[in-house]
Amino acid sequence: MSKLGGTSVIFDLDGTLVDSEPHYFEAGRQTLAAYGVPDFTWADHERYVGISTQETVADWKERYGLPATVDELLAAKNRRYLELARSASRAYPEMRAFVELLAAEGVPMAVASGSSPEAIAAVLSGTGLDAHLHTVVSADEVAHGKPAPDVFLEAARRLGASPAECVVLEDAAPGAAAAHAAGMRCIAIPYVPAQADAPEFATAGLLLRGGQAEFTARSAYDWLAGAAGRS
């Protein structure tokens, strides 16, 4: 039996399993440029890290006074993102190793993401992570995206796990807040290091302030094993 006992692990996707934020930025930059907003910067993009694409484009419409509907903006951004995701998605090596370590021990795993189902599928297949990650929940499938707990609670339901048995891996403050609201423990790996002091991350059981540079599969596994022993 696994040293992790009855623990289930739920992964955020973008910025946690895969380095997809540059693709989201480029898709957003191209989409906004097409609608007459030519100066969207990485700093502008950072405010949307961790929230769903639907909520992102709804904010764009209001912030930039765009004439397009939210559905039109969503379709335009998703189309551009999928082109990038299919050709050039990269899993973080230590995250891939962690997934493989958990899979070898039969630990139940899921992905819970603010991306569309199509985007999630493209990234998981493009990186080969779909070999191990079969349970997937998109924010499009639930009533509210992060920081609401809906995606994580639905992932737990599909895994047949109680929230208290679940550990979430997250890179963004809204996701850490969602994990806490769901009653789940959290390993936080901030994508934007300057956000490591955000109050949402203070609720994490393990906070890796250095982000992916600090994350290793073995240390995460050892922390999970210790947490399982304490729970």
Description:
- It comes from Streptomyces dubilierae.
- Pfam families: Hydrolase (PF00702).
- This is HAD family phosphatase.
- The longest helix has 19 residues, at about 70-90.
- It contains nine helices and six strands, in the order βαααααβαβαβαββα.
- Helix 3 (about 55-65) packs across helix 4, helix 4 (about 70-90) packs parallel to helix 6 (about 115-125) and helix 5 (about 95-105) crosses helix 9.
- The protein has helices at about 20-35, 40-45, 55-65, 70-90, 95-105, 115-125, 150-160, 175-180, 215-230; strands at about 10, 110-115, 135-140, 165-170, 185-190, 205.
- Strands 3-2-1-4-5-6 form a six-stranded parallel β-sheet, sandwiched between helices.
- With about 230 residues, it is α/β, with parallel strands linked by helices.
- It is globular, with a radius of gyration of 17 Å.
